[in-house]
Structure formats: structure tokens, C-alpha cells
Amino acid sequence: MTQYGEKHPPPDDRPTIQVTAVAWPVEEPSPTVAPPPGGGQSRSRRFRLLLAAGVATAVLGSLAGVGTWAYAGDVPRGTTVLGTELGGRSRADAARELRAELERRAAVLAAPFEVRVGERTAQITPADVGLAVDVEATVAAAAAAQAHAVDRLVGSREVEPVVRVDEERLSAALEKLVGDQGRKMIKPAITFAGTKPKVRYPQPSLAVDPQDAARVVTAGWLGGQPVTVPLVESHAATTAEEVDRLVVELAKPAVAAPVRLVTDKGAVTIPPAAIAKSLRFVADDAGKLTPKVDVKRLRDALGDDLAEIEVAPKDARMTISGGKPKVVAGRPGQQLDPAALGRDLLAVLPKVDGREVAGKLAPAKPELTAEKLAGLGIKEKVSSFTTRFTGGLSSPRSQNIVTIAKDVDGTVVMPGETFSLNGHTGERSYAQGYRDAPVILDGKLVPGVGGGTSQFTTTLFNATYYAGLEDVQHKPHSYYFSRYPAVIESTIFWPNLDFKFRNNTEYGVLIDTSYTGSSVTVSIWSTKIWDSVKTEYGPRRNITSPKTVYLEPGPTCIPANGSQGFTQDAFRVIKKDGKVVKREKFSWTYSAEPRFICGRGPS
Fold it and tell me: Where does the chain cross the membrane (predicted)?
């Protein structure tokens, strides 16, 4: 693109000035006066014509000169910004002049100004919210202030400066100012208690509107006056009356009777309970309530009934064979089209009669194919960690560890994905094969289903820790157990205590578990990124001694020897190319575990 300047003068884009012809009066000779001798009349006429031509030429020349003056530069004459004349200048010169004016006003423009929201006021510093005059945009606006030709000659225009503000930072500052004056929108909701619809009616929010606030603040900032930002009520798009209508027209009839699902491979009855679990009313950010059928929830609710007509696809998986990872292909399945099933089921739910849906089975591909799995870069062992059983392999506690280890074995965590141990296993109960074993509850050991799974959690945590993966959530035990590394350990309890890590690499992560008669091991396979991951410990401090507690003897009483309490720091040190690239601090305070004695204390 050609840049216009001294070497490349801009094309003449000035409009042509229309000049109306002037009819000069010509005096007719008086009939009583004889014309001068020698053709005097002709000489007089020629003189007047020459005079007219000269005056016209002078007028044209004058207008052309003034037009050239009026249209000189990129910015029209008479154009000012913040009281500074920018007219008649090139854009570059106008920008320099405007910046000079802003520099002269710098102290004023940088000074905090008062903003009021509701009953509260605060001082806001312009730089903190990104307030600034956009010089280039302002000059462009000034250059675009094209006026009528006559206005360009004698008129004047004041162009408002273009002001920029960071709406996100401004909104954050104003939210602090709003405080408890505001309220969030309560969005409408329809849920089910069993098969009975329950409603929540909407309530409007009271808050600052971000765009309106930006407009008010940018306008008031340059004026040097206090700014008042109004609190605005925002109502949900779905009203209370519309919520009641949805209940009457959809929610209640939906669960009034079953729906028959018919396919080429047989029919399934969808009972009202399954409908209630899968029919959802979703409110968006504007509070608009939209009904939909969640087919995944419907599948879970129907369980084995739907399995009679569907074949679920099986994902590809990876195993360790001969010390190397090996991809095992998955298989496609046949399932109901979820989009069509959700749409068609929603259409019949308001009906009293004709509650039947035709389901069409379609091929279903596995989510994780062999090709995708092979391309994840899972090629080598990155880390491994082992803990030892406190009893033999046949003990209930050890069996619980083996059960959870088998459940997690072979799990692939995709790049960027967060793994949740509770989310993966679900509730650990007798139905999943877990047994009663000691767990810590209310500060003491008691029998509980799934006892021992904390040891597997600690083993998995350490394997991911030494692989350099991102720790998202873990909680060490209340008491210190010498079989675990201090601080770098984790408990788990359904549903409140979870262990989570994130695969913060560009490669897939394979969790491989194994066990022997005396230990359990978790290994992480991926592509190695770090040279080394090690732990450096600080000294133990704030050491406390255990108390002796006597408990009522009985089958639920579990004695304990007790242990000291202390606080300690552990530092994860990660090196690459011989240099420390990360140093992460983990701290924990252990309580002193009481010495529990099953029996009466001394009188």
C-alpha cells in the first residue's frame, strides 16, 4: 500500500466548486444622444465585457485559493480536540499535537477520580482500569469530520476524543464498590423430587451493567467531575408465570405415564422415574429456561433395560507388555442416536395419549480409537511409586487396595484433562467389591467400607507428583503414618475428600497399577519431560505429644499406639537441562494421634 507524503503527494480529492455565471447589465444608448464618433459604442461594450471577464477570473481565482486553504491537510480546518486546533494538519502532525496536549494534561488525567455506586463512593485510578485516550482513533475521527464546503471555510467543529477502558478491570473495581448493595440473579428452575416437580421462581439481579458503566466512566473521566454509575435491575428471561406454565404443560404430564421406546431390536418401557431423572430445565445466563432430555442420564436410569437393544462401543486401551506400552484396539457399537432420541422423547412428554417414540439404532464409534491412542506419545515410564501393605494380601484392607488399583489400571488421561479419583471410581461400596476395614472418622479409627483406599491414593499421588504432573486437589491425613512420606501423601473419602491431578503436558498419560502379596505400585507412562523430580524437606517444628484416650470396649473399638504431631515443609524440585525450573512448596500440620486404649481408664 502506498504511503502518501512529500514524495507521493495525495490525489486531489477536493470537490469541484460550482460558480454561477453573472449577467452584467448593458446600457442601451439614449435615443436623443448621438453615439460618439468613430464607433464609441463598440469600444464601450468591449470594455464592459473585458471588465466582466476580469472580475469573473478574479472571483474564480479567489475561490480556488480559499478552497485550497480550506482543504489543506487531512483534518478539516476549524477542527479541535480538547480545545486544541488539529485542523489543516496531516494525520501524523495532528497526532503529535494531540499527544503534546495530553502530555500537558498528564497529571490531571492520571489523578484518581471519584466514582459513586449506590450509597458508596471510591477513588479509581485511571491506569488501574485501563482508561486512556486513543490518539490514533481520535485523529481518525477528526479527519472523518467532513463538513459542507462552506462550513470548511468558516465553521468550527469540536470532536470528542476516543477513550478506551478495560471493561473487565473496570467491572472488577465496580463490583468491589457495589459489595452487598447488589444481588445476583436467582434463575428459574424446575427439578424433580422423585416424580414430583419442584419450582424455583426467578428474582432479578441488581448490579452494574458493564457496557453502561464503561460509557458513563469514559464520558465522566475527561470532564473532571465525580461519576455516578447506576445500579440496574436485570430480570430473568423466563418469568414466574412462564415457570408455572412449563410445570402445567410439560413437567407434570411428562411423569404422569411411561413412554414406550420402539426399535428394530425390540421395545423398552421408559418409566416416569427415568423420565424425571433425564428431563432437565436448563437456565442460560439470561435466565431463559429451556427443557431438554439428557440422554446420558436416561441411559444410566434405564441401565440393563437399554443394554438389551444397544451395544456400547469399546474404547481402545493400552497395556504394558514386555516392558513396553501396547495399543489394544477397541470396537464400534450400535446405539440410539442421542440427538434424535432426546428431541423425539421431548415432543411426546406433554401428551396424554400416543406416548411412543421410534428409536433408530446407528453405528457408534469409540471415543478413543487405536490411531488416536497411538499418537498420544505414551512411550516410556516416567515415574513409579510403591507402598507396602500393613497386613497380608488376604486382609480386607489389602483387598480394598487391590480393588481400587484394578479399577484405575489402564486409565488414559488426555493432555489438559483433570483426573478425579472419586469421579473415576464413583462411590466405593459393597456392590463394587469393597469390604469393611479401619478408616479415620472423627479423629479415631472405626470400621468403614473401603478402608485402605487412602493408601492407594497416596501411591497414585506420589506417582503423579514425581512425574511432574500438576497437583489439583489432595489432603494429607490428620495423623502421621510412618508408612507414608511426610506431607507428600493423601487421604480420600466419598464424596467430600478427593484426589485430583491435571495432565499439564502435551502427551497422553497412562496410569499402570500392579500389586504383589505385600505391596501396590503405580507407574506413570508418557513422554519424559523433566530430567529429575525430587523432594527436599525442611525440619519438623511445632512438635506435640499424644494424649491417652480410653474407649468403650467392643467390636467397633480399634486401639492405636498414638503418634507425635508436627508441622513440616516439603519442596518439589524439578530440573531440566541441569537447571532448577520449578520449586513448589507443600506444607502440612499433623495433629498428635491419641493413644487409644479399649477399656476403662484408671479411676
Answer: 49-72
